[in-house]
Amino acid sequence: MSEDTLGGVDGLRDRTRRAVRADLAERAMVLFRERGFDETTVDDIARAAGMSKRSFFRYFATKEDAVLGLVDELGERVVEDIRARPADEPPWECLRQVLRQSEERIRTSADALRLIESTPALRAAHHGKRDQTRALIATALRDRPGSTLAPFAADLLATAAGAALDAAAREWLRTGGTADRAHLLDQAFAALRPKLA
């Protein structure tokens, strides 16, 4: 295959790096479930992945990042999906559709979300990551073809969508994972629907 077929050398490197990060994050989650977050060390995660501690740090700066990396990846996918939506779709509906499509990915990250909610250090770091992701989502909304959203309006929509997602996730966790997350998300989006959308 040519480099063009693979998306170039940089594209291949990026895909490989993402695959290794995803594998490390999954191995970390297994250990966190078995031993607990505080009891698991970076050495434990690196050993489980068959690599050195130094190699681990090429992919994640901290063990917290091994969990939060899953959240980062979800955020990146949401931004990509927003850019792929029809240009004439209203921004609030665009966010609802993208987050609804992301439900399967969010569901597979449920263990990470539970761990984040139950670990104070992770919860604090997660809030910072969410702010970064919200800013990227607001920018993606403003960058859509034909968009006339002001920065304030885009930030407001991204923040409201995040609140809808958080409320649906908390209710889903309260039910022990038995509630229909997509239905909860639809309810939250209907309740928060802004006039400017």
Mean pLDDT across every amino acid position: 87
Order of helices and strands: HHHHHHHHHHH
What sort of overall outline do the alpha carbons produce when their principal axes are compared?
A: globular
Our estimate of the beta-strand percent is under 5%
CATH topology of the largest domain: Tetracycline Repressor, domain 2
CATH architecture of the largest domain: Orthogonal Bundle
- The level-1 CATH class of the largest domain: Mainly Alpha
**Distance between termini?**
45 Å
pLDDT < 50 runs, ≥5 residues: 1-6
What percent of residues adopt helix (DSSP H or I)? over 70%
Question: Which structural category do the helix and sheet elements fall into?
Answer: mainly alpha
The Rg value, from CA coordinates, equals 18 Å
Our count of helices gives 11
Main sheet overview: none
Instruction: Count structural domains.
Output: 2
Number of strands: 0
- The CATH superfamily of the largest domain appears as Tetracycline Repressor, domain 2
Keywords: DNA-binding, Transcription, Transcription regulation
Protein name: AcrR family transcriptional regulator
Domain HTH tetR-type: 18-78
Pfam family, one: TetR_N
Brief synopsis:
The protein has 197 residues and is mainly α. It has 2 domains: 1-60, Arc Repressor Mutant, subunit A (Orthogonal Bundle); 62-197, Orthogonal Bundle (Tetracycline Repressor, domain 2).
